[in-house]
Write a structure and sequence with these properties.
Elements (H helix, E strand, L loop, with lengths): L1 H44 E5 L14 E5 L13 E5 L7 E9 L3 E5 L2 E4 L2 E2 L13 E5 L4 E5 L9 H4 L2 E2 L3 E10 L5 E2 L2
Antiparallel strand pairs: 1-2, 2-11, 3-4, 3-11, 4-9, 5-6, 5-8, 6-7, 9-10, 11-12
Length: 187
Amino acid sequence: MEEFQRDTETGKRESVLRILLRWLSEAVETIVPAILIALLINLFLAQATRVYGQSMEPNLHTDQRLVVEKLSYTFHEPQRGDIVILQVPQAGSGLLIKRVIGLAGEKVEIKGAKVYINEQPLEESYISNQPQRDMKATVVPPEHVFVLGDNRGFSNDSRSFGSVPLDNIVGRAWLSYWPLDQVGFLE
């Protein structure tokens, strides 16, 4: 009888051990691929970011959450009007969100509260307030873009730190997902 109890207890321990090992195996099989997929997506395809400051108002607001897609600029350069996330060492360690205004080889100038590209006025339905000061003409170097905030009076942008190398662009702001009343694709 005593031997039967020991065998039963040993069997129960083995059963519990098997269940734990099976559970651990399934957890590892699920969690490790999920982590790898998340890392791959974050490194190469997309990442989430948060808007800080008022430089892109009225279109983007502080604490608004965005999805930044990173893939398209490996196939083509940014286009005028794209909202991009970029690193600018001269502007501090954080990421900035700005709109592409000037492309490589173009002459950008601000005069009389209007942006000119190659001496042609740029139509900008997205800005909230006009530039407060004029800016003398500058030519955007190859492999660079000229960026401005939509809220020109409150934006640290290419008027301060110059044109931005394409390598400093993290990606294109693509989708707003928070707050819920602002969910949608960005223009």
